[in-house]
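Pasting as-is:
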Amino acid sequence: MEKPARLGYRVRSVGKASLGNTMMTSGPYENVRIFKAGRDRLSEIKPLWAALHAYHTWLNQDVATRDVDDSWRRRRAQYERWFDDGSATLFLAGNATLCGYLMLRVAEGLPTWSVGERIAEVETLSLVGPARGRGIGQALIAAARLEARTQGIVTLSVAVAITNEGARRFYEREGFRPFFVSMLAHT
């Protein structure tokens, strides 16, 4: 399978975004705004999930992925449960059209390591190809950090596929460091 195409071109951000404010970039993703959204906006992020699913399928060729519709049904159900139990915060990025989202979930802290009583987990960060490299991902992470701090949470975590070197570099630039390694084996 070929890597999903990155459409458009990369443009450096000329401004910083913050929650509710507008980030100025040039090109098709001008005036991008980062904002919180509720459960009622979940259907709008399905195409962004599908793009991430296609990328995950390309990344992990040794591990089969589910059909995209089944994958979305399962992920959406998780998102809905997290909204129901009050642990979810959804951030959207876009202007007239959405170009990205971040799902943040608050969970219980780790029993062994002192990372706080609760931890904020970046469950999903997805950007359409042309929106990458413009500071929008950074702005979404900044919004997640602010939300975590507002809730008194001191640790932010994210899980990344080992083969996703670009995402690993991005998160390391954002201050994340490797902590756990998850391993799979056939039974």
